[in-house]
Amino acid sequence: MPTHSVHVVARISARPDAVTQLQTVLTALLEPTRRETGCHRYTLLHNQIDPTDFTFVEEWADAAALDAHLQTPHLQAALAQAANLLAAPPDIRRYDLL
Fold first, then answer.
1. What is the CATH number of the domain that holds 39?
2. pLDDT value for 1
3. Taking a C-beta distance cutoff of 8 angstroms, is the pair 16, 89 a contact?
């Protein structure tokens, strides 16, 4: 069975008093994640109108690569660091390219 890439859009909302702290945590994920096997794209966007709104746009070789990413020490550490900085749980969605 052929594999196809998995696209992810992950929206993350900071508490208004924690925007700078959360941005530091999120940007620290960029380089180690981009070096992971199966990572084709991993970009972080910051909303121009709403400074509490961050969005990762990702592309992974397949679901296994994404699942491996979710278990990496750097992501697990970032999730722990971000827990008290978030206004709501992250909204993480997986997509197929049509």
1. 3.30.70.100
2. 43
3. no
Work out how many domains the chain is built from and give that number: 1
Evaluate if residue 2 carries a pLDDT over 70.
no
DSSP structure string for 26-56 = HHTTHHHHHTSTTEEEEEEEE-SS-TTEEEE
Diameter over CA atoms, the chain: 48
Residues in the chain: 98
Burial class (CB in 10 A: 0-12, 13-18, 19+), 55: middle
Tokens (6 digits) for 11: 């929206």
Which structural domain, as residue segments, surrounds residue 83? 11-95
pLDDT tens digit string along 81-92?
999 999 999 999
